Please model this.
Amino acid sequence: MKEKEIIEYMRGELGSDVLDVSTPHERRVFINIRPEALRRAVEALKRKYSALRFITISTVDCGLNFEFLHHFHVDGVVVTLRSMRPKEENILESITDMVPAANFIEREIADLFGVKVMNHPNMRNLILTEDWAENKRPLRKPLKGILPPQARRVAESLISMGCVAPVSRFIERKREAAGLPKTPPFAFTDKEDMKEMHGIIKETSLSEKVGFNWEKKRLRYR
Amino acid sequence: MVKYALFLGCQIPMRIPSVEIASRRVFERIGLETVDLKGYSCCPEPIISRLLDKTGQLAVSARNLALAEELGLDIMTLCNGCYETLLEANETLKHESEEMLQINKILENYGKKYRGLIKVKHVVEVLYEDIGVKKIRECVTKPLKIRVAMHYGCHLYRDLSGDIMRKPEMMKKLTSLTGVEIVDYGLERLCCGYPSMQVDEEFSLTHRLLPKIDKMIEAGAEAVVLTCPACTIQFETGQILLRERGVRYDLPCINIMELLALSFGFSSRDLHLELHRGAILRLIKKVEGD
Model:
């Protein structure tokens, strides 16, 4: 089967940069890759398949991330390289130097979503007027995750502290006055317990789904 | 002596610690030994985490359950939400071997293992089944002369036996031991609206909380007895928010553990009941006099 051959080849070329693959039906392959591996993936396809034909690039604003879908035709099979980039990065690496037909669609993506296409040879507005406001792109949505505003603080506190009720000095004082410890023995009162708790959460998709930034210890949106 | 690992959860110790204070006083008086779970975390919160990521929810619950297993003790929760989350996680992991394998693969990286050795019980069950009505009645030294309405909370109806009224009935009987008069108001089963506050404040307040309070007041209740901290927060802050909508109610809220402690003779001052946000002072005055 051609689909299987393509998948095996790409896995061999990209190794762990292939996150997962799917073949929803005959002659259709999706290859999810790390965004940093996009150009290497295109290079690999070009190297192996001389009849490779570029179809187009689709872009989806998923709220927190941009999903880029680079579609190619390989010997009767449509192969899509799917990569996600956080919207805060706001970039897409150009492949126009390798695939000249990508030139216009990359400019269109830049126009409609306000994405910076890196190393494009001729980055000018394609559809929008040259004086179009940078911050008002027709297809760009606000940076927004899955949680409604009322639920954000709870989720943030759950992941960062392992406790959904924030610590307050007032309550700490009242607890002490009643002969209780300032806080009960929560994981956040012990560095090692907290490290364990965070490690366990990181091994699940919870923080990714809510859009939690581990460096800043807060949601990527408020 | 009856002994349990005490799962305090988040809301009680950090927002309504008077419930924790009352619980500890009551446990000591009735001879119920508890051990705090060192290093525990949120159960986790049953609404957001369950909807978003089942594996994440199970992994965090399993870690908490494993902490109690290390102590060789069953878990007792004071909070309805923690009860349901931990009970369901315990049942899922005990009976779904694939889930258990997947979760243990995560826990083992941190030296933890869930074995499925313990039970999860709500404090109402422990008081009713393990301590017993007789012992609790003996401890009541100051019967309370007030009329109360019961709010059991949705999660208290969850029961492995399928008998959804098992724990609410236990709660009602325990409440009646304190000497209070319980008034029926017909909307006991209606949710207080806490979960819907996350998405629609108007619906939550006017279609859930308000009809309940209307009926409670109509039935002559002077206070509402609860066991769930989330419901307590909804009743207390909800009444404040309802004022902006032209509805002025000041129905005091009291947790069943606080009610028991008062009936055992502990003073409201000792229990720090002033930590409630509602009209608790009016209730205290009624119970303790001027």
Remarks:
- The CA atoms of residues 33 and 121 of chain A lie 24 Å apart.
- The mean pLDDT of chain A is 95.
